[in-house]
C-alpha cells in the first residue's frame, strides 16, 4: 500500500537539518510520497525505516519477465482491481500447450501454426505470447521437443514437467531464453527451487488453496527466489475466478506481499468454444498468463481481441494520427470521406471502403480519439473542426472536386459545414457497413 506524506514523515528523523535540500522533514516526506525524489537524499534515516519505505515503494504485484528479446513477456505490476480506476498495465500472456508425446513433425506443424497466429486490429499487432511444452511422452522426449521449439520459434517458453531430471536437462538447453518452469509444489519444492535458482529462471508455484500457497512462497523467498507466478491448479471456473480475485485483492488491498505475484491459469478444454470462453473469463479476472490448447485463428483472435479491449487505457482511447489517408490508387476524382481519429471508427470505415474496391480518401479529424457521435456531442466533430481539418489536410491539392461525405449520424451539421468549408456535403450512411453500396452508387 502506498504511504502518505504523513506516514513517511513519521519514519523520518524530524530534525529539519535541510541536508536533503528541503526546509523540513515534512516537505521532504511530501515529495517522497509523490515519488519526486529518492529516499537516499536523507542521509540520516534509520536502516529499518528505510527498508519499510523501500518495501512500500515496490509494486504490489511483482513484474515478472519470461523469455528474452523483442518477444519477451512481462506480466504483473498491476495496481488496481478495476481498469476504470486507472488502467491494467501488463496484458495477460496467451500461450498454447504442445505435448512432447507428439511426433516431431506434428510438433513442428503445431509450432508453425502458433507462429502464424498474428493479427492486426485497429492499428495494433496482436499475437500469441508463449508456447508451453508439457511432458507426457517417454524419456528424452521433453529435451528433444525443447530443441525443436528453440529451432522454430522466438516466443517465450513454459516448461510443464514434473520430472525433475528432464526439466533440469531442458533448462540447461534453453536457459538463455529464460523459460518459465511449471511448477513447484509442496512435494518437489526444494528440487524445483534449486533448478530455478541455478538457472536463474522464473518459477510457477502451485497449491490448491491460498494458505498453503503463501507457505510455499515464504519458503521460496527464503531461498532467494522472487520471480514467482502463482497457479492454484485445476478447478471449476467459479473457484478459479475466486482464487484469482482473492490473490489480486490480497496483494492490492491488504498489502499481502506473499500473494503479490502474477498468476497462471491452464484453461484447456476439449471443446474449443468452452476453452475460449473460460480463457476470456480468466483474462478479465485477473490472470497473468492463460494457457490453452487450440490453435485455430478464430479462437486466438477472439481471445486476443478481448484482451486488447481490457488492457486499453480507458483514459486514452486508441487513436490514429489525424490526417488524410489514401485508400487504394485514389485519384483526382476519388471520393473523400470524413470520420474521426478514434481507431475503431477509422479502421471500420477503412475496412468498408476497401471492401467497396473504390479508391478513396479518408480524412481523419482530430477528435482526441472520440467516436463520431461522442465527438459531435462534445463539439469536437462539428463544422468548425471539420473545416479546419479540410483546410490543413491538403485535400484540395489531391482532388479536382469539392465534395466530402460525412457520416449519416451527423447529417444535422451538413448545412453549417457546407457554408463554412465551401465543400458540397454528401450525407453518407449512418453505419459504415452501408459504405460499399453507397460508394458504388455514388455517381
Ligand atoms: S535530510 Fe533527512 S533529517 Fe534532514 S531535513 Fe531532510 S529528511 Fe529531515
Ligand kinds: iron/sulfur cluster
Q: State the helicity in percent bands.
A: 40-55%
Q: Kindly estimate the percentage of residues that lie in beta strands according to DSSP.
A: 15-25%
Assembly classification: single chain
Given helix and strand content, the structural type is: alpha/beta
User: What separation lies between the terminal Cα atoms?
Assistant: 64 Å
**Care to count the β-strands?**
17
Give the uncertain stretches in residue-range form.
none
Q: Major β-sheet, in short?
A: 8 strands, parallel
Task: Give a structural overview.
With 443 residues, this protein is of the alpha/beta class. 40% of the residues lie in helices and 16% in strands. Strands 10-9-8-7-6-3-12-11 form an eight-stranded parallel β-sheet, with helices on one face. Strands 13-15-14 form a three-stranded mixed β-sheet, with helices on both faces. The chain has a two-stranded antiparallel ribbon with strand order 1-2. Helix 12 (343-356) links the parallel strand 14 (336-340) and strand 15. Helix 5 packs parallel to helix 6 (164-174). The chain starts with a helix and ends with a helix. Bound molecules: iron/sulfur cluster. Iron/sulfur cluster binds next to helix 2. The site of iron/sulfur cluster has 13 residues, from helix 2.
